[in-house]
């Protein structure tokens, strides 16, 4: 499974290398891109109108909710309707998953946060005499995200239901990767 934030060509590259990969668009990025076409005064109403679409239990229900959204907002903001129509194929895999998986994959914000922390640490250092020094810098940047280690317990509790749902959804492919 890959959650993309709209980078052109990334889904094709991933599915070329790993054909069984499920490519999912980042829901948060899709919402942010929707707000780009709307006036600030309508952001809350649009977010409220789109929530039933991405929280729908099935694709058919999401299509119905999206039709309602398009009826209500399509005349005023047709670009938002077109954006969701164009992204629908990458959005739909999200709806096939259990709620626990949806909670984990709806956004790429967590990985973007880690990447930003690593970028900041590397930029502050400037250059590295060897690969080992670069790896140490990256390791220290990642470890600084949770310096006391107490967050790890919370993360594990939060991830266990999702891990169980992933194991069922991907029919043992996770366990096969750990051998």
From TrEMBL:
The keyword RNA-binding is assigned to this record: no
Domain of life of the source: Bacteria
Keyword annotations of the record: DNA recombination, DNA-binding, Transposable element, Transposition
InterPro entries with a match to the protein in the record: Transposase_mutator
Gene Ontology biological process terms from the UniProt entry: DNA transposition
GO molecular function: DNA binding; transposase activity
Family designation: Belongs to the transposase mutator family.
Xref: PANTHER family: MUTATOR FAMILY TRANSPOSASE (PTHR33217:SF8), TRANSPOSASE FOR INSERTION SEQUENCE ELEMENT IS1081 (PTHR33217)
General function of this protein: Required for the transposition of the insertion element.
Name used for this protein in its record: Mutator family transposase
